[in-house]
Amino acid sequence: MTGWLDAHLVSMVDGVAYGLLLFTLAVGLSLVFGMMDVLNLAHGTLYLAGAYTAYALSDGSWLGLLLALVVGLVVGLLGGGLLAAAVAPLQGRGHLDQAALTLGIALIAAEVMVMIFGAQVLPTAPPSALARSVSVLGHSYPLYRLVFIAVAGLIAVLVYLAFERSSVGALVRATVADRDMVRATGVDTRKVLFGVFAFGAVLATVGGVLGAPIIAPGPGVDDRVLVLSLVVVVIGGLGSVRGALLGALLIGQVQTLGVALMPAFAPFLLFGAMLLVLVLRPQGLFALGRA
Amino acid sequence: MSATSSGMTPAPAPVRRPFPVRTTVLVGVVVLLLALVPWTFGAFTVATFTRALVFAVLAMSVNLLTGVAGMPTLGQAAYFGVGAYTGALVAIHWSDLGVLQLVLATLAGVVAALVTGPLAIRGRGVAFLMITLAIGEIGFSAAGRLDSVTGGTDGLSGIPPVVAVPGTEGLVNEGLIYYYVLVVAVVAYLAVAMLLRSPFGLTLRGLRDNEGRLRAVGYRTDSYALAAYVYAGGLAALAGSLWASSQRFVAPGDLGFEVSALALLAVIVGGVGSMWGACLGALVVVFTQDYLGQLFSGHAPLLLGLLFVLAVYLLPKGIAGGRSQWRRLFPRERSQEDDEAVTPV
Amino acid sequence: MTTRRTSYLLALAASGALVLSGCGGGTLGGGSDDAAAEGPIKIGLLVPQSGVYKSLGDDMKAGFEVYLEQHDDKLGGAEVEVILADEGETADSGKAAAEKLVKQDQVTVVTGVVSSAVMNGVVDLFETSKIPLVGSNASPTTLTDATYIWRTSYVNDEPGEALGKYVAENVDGGVYFLAADYQAGKDEVEGFKKSFGPAGGETVDEVYTPFPDTSNFQPFLANAKSSGAEALFSFYAGGAAVEFVKQYDQFGLKGDVDHYSAGFLTEGGVLDAQGEAAEGTFTAMNYNYDLDNELNKAFVEDYEAKTGMKPTTYAMASYDAAKVLDMAIEAAGGKADPEAINTAIGEITEVESPRGTWTWSNIGTPVQMWYLREVQEVDGTLRNVVVDELGELGSD
Fold first, then answer.
1. N or C: which terminus of chain A carries fewer CB neighbours within 10 A?
2. A223: contact with C, CB 8 A cutoff
């Protein structure tokens, strides 16, 4: 048993890092879907924009990272605002039109980013103080990923507390459950919706800035990240922060520990896991409000 | 005529719709125009039309689920792929006769959909979408892995030219291949049209509009959903066989996410629920990607992106969504009548 | 349904017909299919201009153009017109682009093609239209009996085959195979085993990673590390190669498990992206920018002046494709005659190339020398440096 644990400990740790990265992406997607009923297929584009920001601005110093975070925050706010404004005229037209619109935007944005940054994958170095590997119980592991676990874990806890324990969170959860009822109490739900959209977008771009050394920016990364977060969201249950967190951690382990244990079945694990969950519980593990 | 297959339930609404004279005339004129294509255009344009027609059959299959039964799918490429590989394998190992390939491919698609359908219809809406996505992706990975059957990721080549009429030569000329595809596509279109006019078709629309009520009055809605899924799977596999015959090459990419997504987007651009809209959408998508994309070399994704954004804003109901939205685009034309509902088929 | 709607649909169809009718006569009945005998010879350059393979496409385009610029935009003394087509990412997009070149632009000859799937998909097209394709990258092992298809690159299993014997003789212990899970990856591993096993090499395990969806190689690398293998043989290219090499370093395999790979791993821009993590990696390739011959010096100089980068094997193979066409068009009398050019290509006995002189094998690929390269720091930048010759391949 200890031998097994020793062999797979790094995979499990890495699964946590991977899962937390997925959480920062998925939570925005999940809330926007749960609250606004908007299927935002340009969500992966936000991650990619954040990752390119990190590539362009981080120069190995802490200041560079800080600058990238600030710019990433602004990019997220702008991107989220633009997307929210873009889908606003589509209210009541169903998911398919939103999907076509946001996918169209994602295709255009992807092309623009290739024009700016080229078609190569651009590995992004973390601050040089963190750009080395340390020993985790005798196994070499990148220090940056350990720090990432701490930072992303903190973000996850803050997001969780904000949504489950604060009054603003209560309002958001209420909007997920019954938008009309909240509107009837005199709250401008449109502001809540815009706020959540922008918040989700900022989480995605900040996730991109922090995640760039783990999933480097390049063409196609937007799609890959989008599909992963969609999987997390539907496994967790739409509109649920708790669901997104558990779904993300589960997928993280499937993609690391699962792959280490069953490398021959690697291409089938992600979608196999999702299929299993959805067939048993079509509404996801933690469904809130409308199924 | 209003009886349903189960016989134990009241019919949705005992409508007896008159024979659609105008639609028939319209379809006839369109088919006539399509028949002129090989006499008018060069080989590459004809080949692009051929791809568009195959894609139109796939789009109809997606529309049957998405637009008619209200179950948006991202997995139809899996059944398209089953049909393509079956058609190709029959052609390589057994017979180059088109009818045989079409029938066996369709059967294979039906069987595949029967086996996987019960999983898919466990969910509705986004859950259904994601389950079908998973089926599609697993099919894609499997196609790349089963080297001995599918030729792996490098694809299956060496498919002999298809023989349309027994005893004749295989089809090599683009114009003749186009006619072969056109004839099968028209037959498929008519088959779908008949299905939609049947009580079963009406029930499927009920499934989309209010499944709860349908269930409340005694319909086993899951059976209807599964039947629609199997029908759509067979249709997608039929398209796959046409693909194998016209391209004479099948690769795992044909089962890929992109194919499913483009088919779904073609349906949205064309007008969800409308079959001729789906066909037009397929035409627009294929020509944007293969034709304009080559004209502006390397920018096909950008062009598709612009197409989708513009279509969603300017044609909210799709190309087939009635004239009022077109009128809004070209305001010089005076309008008298209001928007008309999307007429399926 | 109204008659007005009918007329609107007809108008739509008619306008669509008008838009497309610029493309000449019909396919059936009196089409004008004969290629223009006058004017420049049309050459189709089929390379990715979009998608994940775009950077390879850019290299190949630049390599071809350098040759043209060195020769006053003439091949075989004839004026040429290069028509670019976007291969894209998938077999379908590449096939559509090839069809456009052959059927609409009516080119005399085509060059390029990055993806093996596209190459397989267009075999029938070129064989039935009798248009020569001088491929400059993709080269599936199964393509052995084509008449109109040539490749100036290599065969997919050769980089592995070149390396197998060397690794068997120089590594004291087991070797772990990790490769991208698609046909080219399997071909490389098969090629490696072809010469590795007979030379007494010991295999630990053979694992394929999902392609192109793997960006986190940690679980695979962890398994390789705990297997106790002495060395790793890998096949990755492009973005995956960057991630793989960096993580090989991050997860502590560097310095512990030696890394051998097909040359694509460290070819071109990916090496800059990999940085120090790549140092000490051994790869097999048919070319390196530092090869010492006059032709290569001129090629490297002109290529650098044009692009600011050292040429890659992709650029070199495309340069050689232009060279092959130059020789063949000249032998065919400078006319746009696909059949004559194809015959002339087959009659070429020796090609002077930046990689050294090579000849055709009996399946239309080069018989050429392979080199062992190591990633070393040269004047402050990381470069592939030729450290040994691995022998000639392609003659059987």
1. N
2. no
Structural contact between residues C184 and C139, judged by C-beta atoms closer than 8 angstroms: no
Which residue carries 């130059």 as its tokens?
A: C326
Q: Write out pLDDT tens, residues B230-252.
A: 999 999 999 999 999 999 999 99
Closest-CA distance of chain C to residue A262, Å: 10
Mean pLDDT of B10-20: 57
> Smallest CA–CA separation between A252 and chain C, in Å?
11
Chain A CB contacts of C226 under 8 Å are 7
Give me the residue from A89, A107, A231 closest to B302, CB to CB: A107
pLDDT < 50: residue spans in chain A:
289-291
Nearest residue to A124 via CA among A206, A215, A219, A63: A215
Mean predicted confidence (pLDDT) in B284-312:
88
Q: Nearest by CB to A104, which of B127, B142, B312?
A: B312
- Shared domain for C200 and C273, answered yes or no, is yes
pLDDT tens sequence across C322-337: 999 999 999 999 889 9
Between residues B3 and C143, the one the model is more confident about: C143
Angstrom distances, CA of residue A90 to CA of B265, B267, B312: 16, 17, 9
Domain shared by C189 and C274, yes or no:
yes
User: Smallest Cα–Cα separation from C384: which of C242, C246, C266?
Assistant: C266
Rounded to two decimals, what is the model's pTM?
0.88
Q: Which candidate from A216, A218, A263 shows the least CB-CB separation from C207? A: A263
Distance, in Å, from the CA atom of A22 to the CA atom of A208, rounded to the nearest integer, reads 10
Specify the pairing of strand C109-112 against strand C78-86: unpaired
Predicted pLDDT at A153: 94
Number of structural domains (chain C) is 2
What is the residue extent of each domain of chain A? 26-217
| Higher local confidence (pLDDT), A94 or B286 | B286
pLDDT for residue C3: 47
Do C205 and C178 belong to one domain?
yes
DSSP secondary structure code for residue C36 in this structure:
P
- What pLDDT sits at residue A189? 74
Average pLDDT, consecutive stretches of 10 residues, N- to C-terminus, chain C (396 residues): 49 52 56 57 93 88 96 93 91 91 93 94 92 95 92 95 95 94 92 94 93 87 92 92 92 92 92 90 95 95 95 96 96 92 94 95 94 94 94 84
Show the domains of chain B with their CATH numbers. 21-268+288-300 (1.10.3470)
Residue C6 lies in a domain: no
For A114-117, the CB contacts below 8 A with 24+ separation are A114/A219, A114/C50, A114/C54, A116/A52, A117/A52, A117/A55, A117/A56, A117/A217
Comparing alpha-carbon positions, the chain B residue that sits nearest to A269 is B138
Over residues C106-122, the pLDDT tens digits come to: 999 999 999 999 999 99
| B336 to chain C: closest CA residue | C4
- Look at the block and give the residue holding tokens 């002046």: C305
**CB pairs A-B closer than 8 Å:** 103
- Name the residue range of residue C268's domain: 158-285+370-393
> C307 and C213, same structural domain?
no
Count of Cβ atoms closer than 10 Å to residue A287 Cβ = 18
Q: Which of B130, B133, B302 should be substituted to probe chain A, the one whose Cβ sees the most A Cβ atoms within 10 Å?
A: B130
Task: Tell me, yes or no, whether C272 and C382 share the same domain.
Answer: yes
Q: Which residue of A has its CA nearest to C217?
A: A256
Residues of C whose CB is below 8 A from B38:
26-28
Which tokens sit at B319?
């190309």
Report the CATH number that the domain containing residue C205 is assigned in CATH.
Answer: 3.40.50.2300
- The reply to whether C150 and C273 lie within a common domain is no
Same domain, C68 and C117: yes
C86 close to A (CB below 8 A): no
